[in-house]
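in:
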């Protein structure tokens, strides 16, 4: 399967996906990585893995709609089977999202529906939660609100700070996201009537 990955920064989840493709753990390849920020590490990771590395600087566009139109134009040139958001820090227009419903997934560093948006780890610590974690979900127009696919829990220690916790959650993300993407590539994961379905593996 053909994957296009959107990033805005470091791209450590992208790297986990690229490595899984390389190791045959994902039956797919990343044909292009698109960043809305120039010069980020995620673009370097793309080049090193032999994927096209594309920058579409959102600051050069007058509106969200114009940026999203260019973004989808570039994505569609690759005709991806799936669109993977991996630390992509831009809110997308409904028009863009609706174009890829059922084909676009995101990873969010909390146990959704808790803590949409930013500062998720600090908010979990402040609330006295005993578990943080990460969620992979289909993307729908509601921010961080699309149908859940899979979550991973990470215990919060008594003396945890947001930085230490975020590192452990990120490591967990690197296990979670490639697994979900492999399910997508195998055709086992589908979205129907607003719910994610995982088919059993044939015996
Ligand atoms: C991750 O914590 C992810 O959950 C969130 O943004 C971060 C991206 O990190 N959406 P990286 O760029 O993959 O290292």
């Amino acid at each position: 399967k053909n994957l296009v990955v959107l990033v805005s920064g470091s791209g450590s989840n992208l790297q986990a996906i690229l490595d899984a493709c390389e190791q045959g753990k994902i039956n797919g390849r990343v044909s292009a990585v698109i960043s809305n920020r120039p010069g980020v590490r995620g673009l370097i990771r793309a080049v090193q893995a032999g994927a096209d590395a594309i920058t579409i600087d959102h600051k050069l566009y007058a509106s969200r709609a114009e940026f999203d139109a260019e973004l989808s134009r570039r994505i569609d040139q690759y005709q991806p089977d799936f669109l993977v958001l991996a630390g992509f820090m831009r809110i997308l227009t409904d028009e863009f999202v609706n174009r890829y419903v059922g084909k676009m997934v995101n990873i969010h560093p909390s146990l959704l529906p808790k803590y949409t948006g930013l500062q998720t780890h600090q908010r979990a610590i402040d609330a006295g939660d005993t578990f943080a974690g990460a969620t992979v979900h289909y993307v729908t127009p509601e921010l961080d609100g699309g149908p859940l696919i899979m979550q991973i829990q990470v215990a919060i220690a008594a003396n945890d700070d947001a930085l230490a916790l975020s590192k452990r959650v990120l490591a967990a993300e690197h296990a979670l996201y490639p697994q979900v993407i492999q399910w997508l590539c195998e055709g086992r994961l589908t979205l129907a009537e607003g719910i994610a379905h995982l088919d059993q593996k044939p015996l």
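note: The first helix runs from residue 12 to 22.
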